[in-house]
Structure formats: C-alpha cells, structure tokens
Amino acid sequence: MTIRFAVNTYGLAHHFDDPQAMIRTAQLAERAGFAQFVITDHVVMGEQTQQYPYGPWPTPLDFPWWEPLTVLTAVAASTRTIGLTTGVLLSTLRPAALLAKQAATLDRLSGGRLELGLGAGWQEAEFAACRVEFKTRRRYFVEQIRVMKRLWTERKVSFAGEFHAFESIYCHPQPVQPQGIPIHVGIAPSEANLPWICELADGWLPIDDDPAVYGPLIATIKLALERAGRDPARFRFRARFPYVTDAAGQPSLSATFERVPELVRAGLTDIEVYPILYLRSTADSELNDVIGRCAELMRRSG
User: Fold this and answer.
1) Class of residue 176 by CB neighbours under 10 A (exposed 0-12, middle 13-18, buried 19+)
2) Three-class SS string for 166-235?
3) What digits encode the pLDDT tens for the residues 199-240?
4) Distance of alpha carbon 118 from alpha carbon 148, whole angstroms
5) In CATH, which superfamily holds the domain spanning 4-301?
6) What 8-state DSSP symbol labels residue 156?
7) Confidence of residue 302 (pLDDT cuts 50, 70, 90)
8) R_g over Cα of the chain
9) Distance CA 134, CA 235 (A)
C-alpha cells in the first residue's frame, strides 16, 4: 500500500490570526503533493480538562476550534485533488442522519474526496452543552456509524436500534463513493471494540505518536481483520509524526522525515505533518518554505 502524507492544520488559524491560513495551507499542500488535508474538532471546551485521558491538555480554554465540515467545504471549493478528512470529528455530538447528510453533501461537492476520522469524545461538559448523553456515547457511536453507512448506500432505509428508530427514510443525495464515505475510527482496539471495528471501519487512528505503542495494536487489528475475512491491506492506519528535534532542541523536519521507514514498519499507511511545529513567525513565506521542504522530503521518502 502506498504511503500517504497528510497535512494537519491544528493551530494554524490561531498562529496567523487568520482562518484563511487554513485555505492557503490546503492549496500549498495540494501543489506539494500531500494526499490529505486534516482538521480536528471540539464543539465547545469546558474547564475540566483534567478529564483528558492522554496527558496534560495542550491548549488554552478559549483556543479556537473551527467546525471541521464547514472548513472542509471551503477547502473543497478552493482545491481540486487533495483528500479531505477529520482527525477526529466528534460524531457523537451530531445526529446520525444530519451528519450523514452533511458528509454526503460535502462528498458530492468535492467530487468524492471525503474521508471521516471519527471519535466518541472524552469531555463530559461538551456533551452536556450539546444535550447529548455522555455515559452511552460509545454504544451510540457504533450504532451511529451503522446508521450512516446504510443511509449512504441504500435507497430507502428502516432501522430499529437502541438510539435510532425510523421507517422508510430517504437520505439523498448519497455520496459519490459507491460504498459510502470511508470511516476511520479513533478508539482503542479493545477486545470489546475489535469486532465492530472489523465490521464497520475502514481505518484506525491511534492517539499516540509512538510506533512502539501503536505498532503492536496495528498488528492486533490486522490479525482480527484476517479472522473476520477482511483484507488488512485495504485498511488504513494514520498517525502523526513523532516530535523530533535537532541538536539545538528545535523541531526538525529532516529528522522527522528520517523516521518514515520506522513508522511504515510499525504499520502506518498515512502519516500526518503538523506545519505549526516548524513555524517561527507569521510570515506567509515561512509557511511556503515549510510546505515546500515537506514536498522535497516526501519525494525522498518515496
């Protein structure tokens, strides 16, 4: 499977104090040969950031989180070939039918360029603000994916589940992609989750950036896919580059890209670059230089 590089726009609008920086980054990334443009998600942020399960919370409470599908629509209108994806969209905060319609519309408008990286969420205050039940979010997440896949691929849908019940529903237009929009899940591949991951997901997004951590988990998922009768070679695994510095302690693009073979051996098929890590000013010329340097390093990486 060909390795794909993705550009993640985390923090760029805040760094430049300009949301158009995300559009400029997408256009630069497309010309540079990046396969995907990635944006992440929070609807609101509460003060209980100690609930974050992956270490210290990295941003101020009033950090701007741009709504992903809105941004991706603007990017779709400003580009022609780069893939559009999320990492991750908190789908549990959105009604299944509405999210299915929004995603299908964007897939149509972009000519079939959309993938969805989805997560179940960790912040109880965010669920309360959206009037969504927090404790049942993981069960809702699985059923939501099941509902959306049917709405994307069947002309008329009836469904009876724990959270969704409807008769003879038509959700059109449907996506360009005939099997529906690929869904990559950012959720632990536990014994309980593996069966539905193998059934419903098209890829997995580890939260960790350490190949020593996610490598064994990728191997576990691949074995489970084989046992479920699916081809692991058709499943995607996307994670961000580990944070790599030079001798002076500064983030180094060249040292970062030197780890590509290690990440591929660990099982990654898609690798995210965060330009924000390598910017030292708000000059557009520096963003151009970072993306251009990425293009050169991507070519060297094969």
Assistant:
1) middle
2) EEEECCCCCCCCCCCCCEEECCCCCCCCHHHHHHHCCEECCCCCCHHHHHHHHHHHHHHHHHCCCCHHHC
3) 999 999 999 999 999 999 999 999 999 999 999 999 999 999
4) 12
5) Luciferase-like domain (3.20.20.30)
6) S
7) confident
8) 19
9) 29
Query: 183 near 138, Cβ under 8 Å?
Result: no
Selection from 235, 171, 176 nearest residue 200 by Cα: 235
Domain residue ranges of the chain, discontinuous segments joined by +: 4-301
**Centroid of chain to Cα 229:** 25
Residue tagged 């890590």 (tokens): 277
Q: Give CA–CA dist 62/106, Å, rounded.
A: 28
Lookup: tokens for 28: 């630069």
**Measured between alpha carbons, how far is 219 from 266 in angstroms, rounded to an integer?**
8
User: How do beta strands 236-240 and 270-273 pair?
Assistant: parallel
Q: CA-CA distance, 143 to 118, in Å (whole number)?
A: 13
Burial of 265 per CB tally in 10 Å (0-12, 13-18, 19+): exposed
- CA dist list (Å): 296 to 46, 158, 204, 218, 240: 41, 50, 27, 28, 18
| DSSP E strand boundaries for the chain | 4-8, 36-39, 83-86, 89-90, 116-119, 157-160, 165-169, 183-185, 203-204, 236-240, 270-273
Strand partners, 271: 5, 239
**What pLDDT, in 10s, does the model give residues 132-165?**
999 999 999 999 999 999 999 999 999 999 999 9
- Both tokens assigned to 227: 């046992």
